[in-house]
TrEMBL record:
Keywords: Hydrolase. The lineage of its organism: Bacteria, Bacillati, Bacillota, Clostridia, Eubacteriales. Transmembrane segments: none annotated. Pfam families: Glyco_hydro_25. This is Glycosyl hydrolases family 25. Belongs to the glycosyl hydrolase 25 family. It comes from the Bacteria.
C-alpha cells in the first residue's frame, strides 16, 4: 500500500477539498488543535473534516503538543478527545506531534530544555490514553528525534509518522511526510505531502482477546473467550439465534464469556467486542456444526 495523502492546518487557509480529491490525493491528516484546552481547536478543523467527508477522502488527525509534564500530556489528550469525539467514525488515527517548537515552549516556561526521559514519558502518556480510549495512536517524528530523542522502547510502541524528505523512509513507518513544499489543486501555496503505507481502516480497540481464529462447535456445546480491558467489555453475536453469550463476573481487567452454540448445524455468526465509546469490532466467526 502506498497512498498519496496531505497534512494540513489552519495555516493552509480555505481548501477546495473536491479539487484535492480529484487530483489523486486519497486522504488527509488534519490538525485538530494544540495544547491542553479545547479552546485551542484548530480554527479550520471543523470546516476541514466536513470537507474531507464530503469529498470522500480518508481522514486522520494530529494534535500539536506544548506539554511540560505527564499530567499536562493527559490534559492535552482530554482536549483532543473532546474535539474529535464527535467525528469518531470518520477518523482513522490520532497522531501526536512533539517537536522543536514544543521544546522551545518548555524552555520559555522553565528556562531549560526538557529531558529526553520526560519527552518520552509525555508522548507515551498521550498516546497510551488515546489507545486506551479506542483510537489508533501514531507518533509523529523526524530522523533527529528518531535517532537522538525517542528511545527504542517508545519507537516500538507506536505506529510512526516519519518526516523524511530524502527519498524513501530511512526507517520502517506507517506513513512518511515526504515534503513540506508540495502543491495540490484546491490549496493555495505549499502543502505537506505524505505517503501512507499502512491500512488504518481496521477499527482501533482497547479490548484484548485470546481468540482471533474462526472456530466451530457442535450444537449445545460452548466455547469460553477471555477478554482483557480496563473498562467493561461488550461481547455480542452479529446474528441472533446462533450463539448465546453468557458473561462471567469481571476479575480485575479480565472477563470470561461462554459462547453457547444454539443455532442449527451449518449456521454461523461473527463475534464482536467493544469497550464503551467504541464501535463493535469483529474478532472471529463462530460456526455451529
Amino acid at each position: 500500500m502506498n497512498e498519496k495523502w496531505i497534512d494540513v492546518s489552519a495555516h493552509n487557509g480555505e481548501i477546495g477539498w473536491k479539487q484535492v480529491a480529484a487530483s489523486g490525493v486519497r486522504g488527509a491528516v488534519l490538525r485538530a488543535g494544540y495544547g491542553n484546552s479545547p479552546s485551542q481547536m484548530d480554527t479550520r478543523f471543523q470546516n476541514n473534516i466536513a470537507g474531507t467527508a464530503a469529498a470522500g477522502l480518508k481522514t486522520a488527525v494530529y494534535w500539536f503538543s506544548y506539554a511540560d509534564s505527564e499530567a499536562d500530556a493527559l490534559a492535552e489528550w482530554a482536549a483532543c478527545k473532546k474535539t474529535i469525539e464527535p467525528y469518531r467514525g470518520k477518523i482513522l488515527f490520532v497522531a501526536y506531534d512533539y517537536e522543536y517548537s514544543s521544546v522551545n515552549y518548555y524552555k520559555k516556561v522553565h528556562g531549560t530544555a526538557p529531558s529526553g526521559k520526560l519527552i518520552n514519558s509525555m508522548v507515551n502518556t498521550f498516546l497510551a490514553a488515546a489507545q486506551q480510549d479506542g483510537w489508533n495512536a501514531v507518533l509523529y517524528l523526524n530522523n533527529d528525534y528518531r535517532l537522538n530523542v525517542f528511545t527504542p522502547q517508545t519507537l516500538g510502541l507506536w505506529s510512526l509518522w516519519l518526516a523524511d524528505y530524502s527519498g524513501g523512509p530511512d526507517a520502517d513507518c506507517a506513513l512518511q511526510q515526504t515534503t513540506s513544499f508540495g502543491t495540490v489543486p484546491g490549496i493555495s501555496g505549499r502543502v505537506d505531502l505524505d505517503a501512507v503505507f499502512r491500512d488504518f481502516s481496521a477499527a482501533a480497540t482497547s479490548v484484548e482477546i485470546d481468540t482471533t481464529m474462526d472456530l466451530s462447535r457442535p450444537h449445545g456445546e460452548f466455547y469460553t473467550v477471555k477478554t482483557v480491558c480496563p473498562r467493561q467489555v461488550s461481547l455480542t453475536a452479529g446474528t441472533g439465534g446462533i450463539v448465546t453469550v453468557v458473561p462471567f463476573p469481571r476479575n480485575g481487567n479480565e472477563q470470561l464469556f461462554a459462547l453457547v452454540a444454539v443455532g442449527g448445524p451449518g449456521t454461523e455468526t461473527g463475534i464482536y467486542t467493544a469497550a464503551p465509546g467504541e464501535k463493535p469490532l469483529k474478532r472471529f466467526v463462530y460456526r455451529v456444526t
